[in-house]
Amino acid sequence: MNPSERDPAREESTRPTQEVDRREFLKACSLLAPIILGVVRVPLLNAQESEGDDYDPSEHFYAMGIDVDKCIGCGQCVVACGTENDVPDEPYFFNTWVERYLIRTDGEVEVDSPNGGMEGFPPTTAEGDIRRSFFVPKLCNHCANPPCVQVCPVGATFKTEDGVVLVDDEYCIGCRYCIQACPYGARWLDPEKHVAAKCTFCYHRIVEGLVPACVEVCPTGARIFGEVERRATPLARFMRFNEVQVLKPHLNTEPKAYYANLDGEVR
Amino acid sequence: MAKFDPFRGTRVPQQVPRLVAVFAVAIIGLLVARYFLVPDTFGQLGHYRAAALDTIVAHEKKYAGQQACQLCHFQIMQKRLAGNHKGVGCESCHGPAATHVSDPAQIKPSIPSEREFCLRCHEYSPSRPTGFPQIDPVRHNPMSFCSNCHDPHAPEPPVIPGQCSACHGQIARQKAVSHHAGLECTTCHEAPEEHKVTPRLVRPTKPTERSFCGGCHARDADSPPHIPRINLRLHNPRYVCWQCHYPHYPETP
């Protein structure tokens, strides 16, 4: 019960008709209270439940976890991302891609990612010669201190309050500075629109409470989507139970793609 | 006349009013240009156009998410969640289904049946994590559809120990060309039946002592004479055998 809503009503009803005795007045108030509360409170409660209508970015802070030990290199994430975000079919444009690392017995490291891993990986040659091998999914790290945003001359790429780095398609002038600045190679120039493009964490999905397309289709749970700092999500558990690392920490970009079981050879 | 005149008594140089006029025009020009060129919502939330968020959020969804599938396909969902494909989202195999959700009668998602689709995940690759079920497509029932034997919504794991190699292909291949080729996996590991259902929760045993390897390789061991022997008491007693020798691919002595 909210006293501030009742007080003016009481004053108005008591002042003109002094004959009304206290008992009847309180009765009327108790009858009126549910109506007032109903009108004021119910829309508020509904607003909290449906996240899509009243999304509050200050309540979220998104990040992604990647368990390298679970990735099987099937490339479903690359396919799903391409479909969901209309990434052109031309080769070598990816929001997310999978790299295969091959470390030979003589210590030589080979990295390949044929078509981003979209069609899987061809069999390796000289199998006996392998010391270890694994897949590493990569994507925009959605840095908390993003170099791409710093260099944008027009303010077309930006960091949202909920921790996602996005590109304003209509405002980008296609100067490619951000593509040069990104140390993770996560950006590309859209060949048709001539604007910079990148992973959005499927922003249109996450504001509705869904997970990004790559996470939705990952068959082994190698990708874990969630939030850091603000809410309890699967990512918080993942970071508690694994020793997580980030890519290129020395660049001080504060990346928010957290890798578990990451090999020292991964760049 | 007590009118305030800051320049009283001093002579204003001729160029000053002109310069002031030029600066004023420049500043007014800049403000006018800013008024027309800077987008409406620029700077509302930060150094960017806040309206861009609306455009990005309005992007069309192609993947519906498995919560949407559950509403109609509850039974098949329950079946999948109880089986080994519990982590595999519906749209991982059936493709994007947002259009199917909006018009279930007309638009049907795909049902992949060809071997190549299953092999995307289950073909043997040395890069895949150990323990992930993999097959050699050339030897594993070629020309047969996967779904002839395996239910994709609740696939059954292979039988052990004959098929340890189904998951541990890398180890099996290495062992097959090593001096330990003749040894069964079960010679050294005991794999409980539950290991094939929950491979990471119930793990097979591993030898824990030097004396286990000593069973074949000690001086006094009761084993064929061609097996290399060591003196268990004197041969680097600080270490257990597998700290130097890899049992699945022991070096030639």
TrEMBL record, chain A:
Transmembrane segments: none annotated. Residues 62-91, 131-162, 163-192 form the 4Fe-4S ferredoxin-type domain. It holds the Pfam family Fer4_11. SUPFAM superfamilies: 4Fe-4S ferredoxins. CDD domains: PsrB. Keywords: 4Fe-4S, Iron, Iron-sulfur, Metal-binding. GO terms for molecular function: 4 iron, 4 sulfur cluster binding; metal ion binding. PANTHER family: PROTEIN NRFC (PTHR43177), PROTEIN NRFC HOMOLOG (PTHR43177:SF3). This is 4Fe-4S dicluster domain-containing protein. The lineage of its organism: Bacteria, Pseudomonadati, Gemmatimonadota, Gemmatimonadia, Candidatus Palauibacterales.
From TrEMBL, chain B:
InterPro entries: Multihaem_cyt_sf, Multiheme_Cytochr_ET. SUPFAM superfamilies: Multiheme cytochromes. The keyword Signal applies. Keywords: Membrane, Signal, Transmembrane, Transmembrane helix. The chain crosses the membrane at residues 20-37. This is Cytochrome c7-like domain-containing protein.
